[in-house]
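Table S4 entry, Glutamine--tRNA ligase.
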Amino acid sequence: MSAESKKAHNFIQSLIEDAITKGEHSGKVVTRFPPEPNGYLHVGHAKSICLNFGIAETFGGECNLRFDDTNPEKESQEYIDAIKQDVEWLGYKWVEEVRYASDYFDQIYGFAEELIEKGKAYVCALSADDMAAYRGSLKEPGKNSPYRDRPVEESLQLFRDMRAGKFQNGELVLRAKIDMASPNINLRDPILYRIRYADHHQTGDKWCIYPMYDFTHPISDALEGVTHSLCTLEFEDHRPLYDWVLDNITIPCHPRQIEFARLNLNYTITSKRKLKRLVDEGVVDSWNDPRMPTISGMRRRGFTPESIRTFCDMIGVNKAGGTVDVGMLEHAIREDLNTRSPRAMCVMRPLKITLTNYPAGQTETLTLPVHPQNPDMGERDVTWSQTLYIDREDFEMEPPRKWKRLAPDQAVRLRGGYVMTCREVVRDDCGEITELKCEYDPNTLGVNPEGYKPNGVIHWVSADDSVETDINLYDRLFNHESPDSDKDGDLMDHVNPESLVVLSGARVEKSLAQPRTNLPYQFEREGYFFCDQELTAAAGKPVFNRTVTLRDSWGKGGK
């Protein structure tokens, strides 16, 4: 058992250990991660990935990646490719080849015929509205379909005719014959097969009938030899149907379904349907927009797989529902990046500085650490010259009390460089400040000045060899803790208008002319920023996405 597995001990692990101790389980532990390829994976799926692959690793078993692809109208190869990439990026590898529920369509069809022959399934011609009316409610039992007692031979022939394409969409369905009076509505003769004339991304036009998820899932698990089918809590009421299917067909394996609480994050939505709406309505650019809670979006924003796995370990696995503060996810990425990210200086809103007492055309090279707490990461060179840039927000004409940056006739130290004092403010015809003329103290490199005290430390870049860049300041996509709460209006009402602020013409130090793309930088005093390879290639200059601020700027009350 790995150190990581020990750290991530949870109630599911305890159940399996207890079953092994009692002799109720022997042999290899086999789990599976079974996404539907109808969208990109989000942070909630990351929890399930870590759990399923982690449990298998803990017990020296195996985890399959299987696409539950029973709804071809909403599925695509794009989603399949993205999901595979996400799982691998998180650091996990499935056993053997990727699997698909569609690999088992022939066998699943055979099990459906077996249920018909046993008198446990029938072909029903009720319309969708009538079927809903016959189903009853939580307070009232349902009533039997008038087709429930069709002779076995008739249902079998109709089912074969459904497969042969002799009926239209919605004309007939195959239903299980269980109990229309069951208090569990999932057992009130659920649909097992429906007619869908749609090409499938794996099977083409071979099928015009497709099995329902609740019928496909237990059979796929059993055919793969899965021992523990780990599902989120909404499938708890489906477990009796899962067991009924396996108890009534001739199949040797019966996996144990165990439910756990899904991940709910405040300021976040994790419904693929609602995430798709954000894409379709142009609120975000794509599924991998860095504001999206998708794994690909977080990757493009600069989140690391280690931070996401740490977050999943922090929140744990339990049966109780609840909402997790998204600040925990942001804390996990800050903790990871603080120890590993190289440092650099970026001036977001450049303001020109001219050092009037520094020779024009002269430069000198200053050496700064790549990481102040980790000397093994080496050093980097920055250029000092007569013309520099500082951030416009680091200067105030009339500074407030306790101002620790630059102001007229006040001095500041430039990070890793000299101390300078502002002597003159230059404005354009509109009164806007365009330049500060300053004097630098040549005796202050690495030492404190004599006779006066600098008013803080600010970052800077040289005008001579800094690199122009664009900065995408990403923030939380929603400004409401529960954006998809029906009582608080439509989720679109809660989109944060400042979730993306684009800064053009920013400047970074010369070491970022060819930025690394495997890990974000810490832009000193600003936050963590990741080079967006796609946008950089299009712009012909570095483009950086803000991964996360240095500190939580939201707090308990939000912004």
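Residues 273-343+469-549 form a domain with the Glutamyl-tRNA Synthetase; domain 2 fold (CATH 1.10.1160.10).
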